[in-house]
Amino acid sequence: MIVHPIPPEYDHDSQVLILGSFPSVKSREQGFFYGHPQNRFWKVLATITNSDIPVTIEEKKALLKKHHIALWDTLKSCEIVGSADSSIKNAVPNDLSIILDNAKIKAIYVNGKTSKAYYDKYLKAQTGIDAICLPSTSPANAVFSMQKLIESWKVILQ
To answer: What angle do CA 40, 87, 27 make, to 5 degrees?
Structure first.
């Protein structure tokens, strides 16, 4: 069983919550979200917000804060082989109240179908909010080109 090692990233002014499923091996090693260089999350977020692509954790946190975005994952712990969402077993959900009780979240988005499935199964009843599923920024989601991801992800700015 691996316990999620990264705390939620949010502040009082966060209005949008983006949830992944569980951090990849690279993210766990780096201690921050979407740490794999092939994951397109930071490129997509930078593009839709007309920002420079953040490189350091501090730059990533600053980008999130500037655009009132909170970031976390649906799962608190699980058994997982490498970074493969398809291998997740014995999933335990995160408690989103730490964010929802301390921020002004107006919308919840999930990064990919796995996150959506865990959100719907474990967290929707707690939050009472329908999460909007966005296409995964993972390199494994080769069906979505960078341009298609950017078009889909623009919705978070509304």
So the answer is: 40
Provide the greatest CA pair distance for the chain.
Answer: 39
* pLDDT in the model for residue 59: 98
85 has a pLDDT exceeding 90: no
The domain defined by 2-157 carries CATH number 3.30.450.40: no
What is the C-alpha separation between 105 and 126, in angstroms, rounded?
Answer: 14
CB 32 within 8 A of CB 57: yes
How confident is the model over 136-141, as a mean pLDDT? 89
Per domain, the residue ranges of the chain are 2-157
With beta carbons less than 8 A apart as the criterion, state whether 27 and 81 touch.
no
Going by C-alpha positions, the residue among 61, 52, 43, 51 that lies closest to residue 6 is 61
For 76, the token pair is: 């608190």
Strand order of the sheet with strand 2-3? 2-3, 75-79, 89-93
CA distance 22 to 42: 16
Q: What is the pLDDT of residues 19-42, one digit of tens each?
A: 999 999 999 999 999 999 899 999
